[in-house]
Specification:
The chain is mainly beta. The protein contains 2 helices and 29 strands. It has a single domain, classed as Beta-galactosidase, Chain A, domain 5 (Distorted Sandwich). A hairpin with a 5-residue loop joins strand 1 and strand 2. The model has no long low-confidence stretch (mean pLDDT 96). Bound molecules: alpha-D-galactopyranose.
């Protein structure tokens, strides 16, 4: 176990980094500031250690450049809510408008900017908890939230969220890690191979709010049902890319009313140089693929300078603006009914069998 001082937050609180290690030597470094994943070191096909996530060197960077969401635990509700407004049971709610008039990742006071309390820390497991009071960010209900990161000896990073509120509210947490399976300093991810097990994606209109439709991926750059290089179709004349500057879209990985129940493999990615493969397994109804379109000259850890396309996010969640969209599954939780949701990132190399 290794707990290190990370820095003093702007409100004067001491923050720490916690290292988890499994039997395969995989290492995860998590910060109690923001429940942020700062480092994830796995072995490549030559048995070299590779840090596969983008991150910052200092705590200060995480507090000033919080809108990149590097490694962030995002909540209470991930992604966009149109105009920062929604209705629940006839009551109107107003949230921050922090992104072109819409609410993104719950506004200016996201959970990734808070100091979390470490409630469990062992060799390969850490749990961090947060109390989000009634009216926090504009939502109703005192929400108790715990996120647990576990590194199993099968090289899985298991991320478990537990949420319990005393009032009916929305709950749609995610993790916003940017992966680069060739190593965080290795440049573009456009030659990574990607598979997403989704027949439909959610097209967006201006300011990236869903149109309300589900569109078949067939014959579009959104078809990742068979393994394809991330960059292969990025320059295709596709109307969605004009609006989003790249992939920044929700893929529907589970359909139907019980779509959030049960774990399912939803995506595979592979670093073309490292041979590191990542499988994403989740109980969430969908996943946002984001190709770091808005990252530019971003100074990262170990002297890295990140540009657009130097990482990709696979953020498991409910669809953007789901609460305002008639046909979308809704991230609503009920009073004193604890919700547990899980996403697993499993790593292996092309030298190993799955
Ligand atoms: C999410 C959004 C993107 C972008 C990033 C943060 O993934 O969908 O549009 O705002 O967060 O930069």
């Amino acid at each position: 176990m290794l707990k290190e001082f990370f820095g003093t937050s702007r409100s004067g609180k001491r923050t720490h980094l916690y290292t988890l290690i499994n039997k395969q030597g995989t290492q995860l470094v998590v910060s109690d500031f923001g429940a942020i994943i700062r480092k994830l070191i796995v072995r490549d096909k030559s048995d070299m250690s590779v840090d596969v996530v983008l991150g910052y060197e200092s705590l200060e960077k995480y507090t000033t450049n919080y809108d990149t969401y590097f490694g962030a635990t995002v909540g209470r509700v991930a992604n966009r809510i149109k105009d920062g407004k929604f209705n629940l049971d006839g009551k109107k709610y107003t949230l921050d408008q922090n992104n072109d008039g819409n609410c993104l990742h719950s506004g200016f006071n996201g959970y990734h900017t808070r100091l979390w309390k470490v409630t469990d820390y062992r060799d390969s497991v850490i749990s961090l908890s947060l109390t989000s009071p009634d009216k926090d960010q504009g939502f109703d209900g005192n929400l108790q939230l715990t996120v647990t990161f576990e590194l199993t000896d099968h090289n899985e990073l298991v991320v478990t969220y537990e949420g319990n509120s005393d009032k009916k509210t929305l709950f749609n947490p995610t993790n916003h890690t940017y992966f680069n399976l060739n190593g965080h300093k290795s440049g573009s991810i456009l030659n990574h191979d990607l598979t997403i097990e989704a027949d439909y994606f959610v097209p967006v209109g201006p300011n990236m709010i869903p149109t309300g439709d589900f569109q078949l991926v067939t014959d579009t750059p959104m078809d990742f049902r068979t393994e394809t290089k991330i960059g292969k179709r990025l320059n295709d004349p596709f109307d969605q890319f004009v609006l989003t500057k790249g992939y920044d879209h929700h893929f529907v990985t589970k359909e139907g009313p019980d779509s959030h129940l049960g774990l399912k493999t939803i995506a595979h990615a592979k670093g073309d140089l490292s041979g590191i493969k990542m499988t994403v397994i989740s109980d969430r109804p969908g996943v946002q693929l984001y190709t770091a379109n808005f990252v530019s000259d971003e100074l990262g850890k170990d002297g890295a300078e990140y540009q657009a396309r130097d990482g990709f996010c696979l953020e498991t969640q409910y669809a953007p603006d789901a609460i305002n969209q008639t046909n979308f599954a809704k991230p609503i939780i009920f009073p004193n009914k604890k919700v547990v949701t899980q996403t697993i990132f499993k790593f292996n190399t092309t030298n190993e069998s799955e």
